[in-house]
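Attaching the record inline, Q. Sequence:
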Amino acid sequence: MRSVAFTPQAEFDLVEIWQYYIEIKSSVSAARKVRSAILQAVDELSLMPGKGHYRAEIKDPALRCWSVYSYVIIYQYDQTTMTVVKILHHARDFRRHFP
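Structure, as predicted:
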């Protein structure tokens, strides 16, 4: 199994998602559910990172994507490590985040 790393941006993205569900949706249970699903997907991707897909809006061929609920996990991997680069809502402008 590859080790998993989160960039500071990806860690910040997780916090923002948590805060959205707590502050806007007023739902601790939804916050837990979404966070848990994202972290579970990351663990599963570390076992088979090649199952992710490419997005035309992201020019870097090393970056792959995996969707969980309304969010897209953007990551890269090598033989030893899978790094989560960002976690974005699917409606965001990916070109703006990955010029």
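The longest strand covers residues 81-89. The CA atoms of residues 10 and 86 lie 4 Å apart.

More tomorrow.
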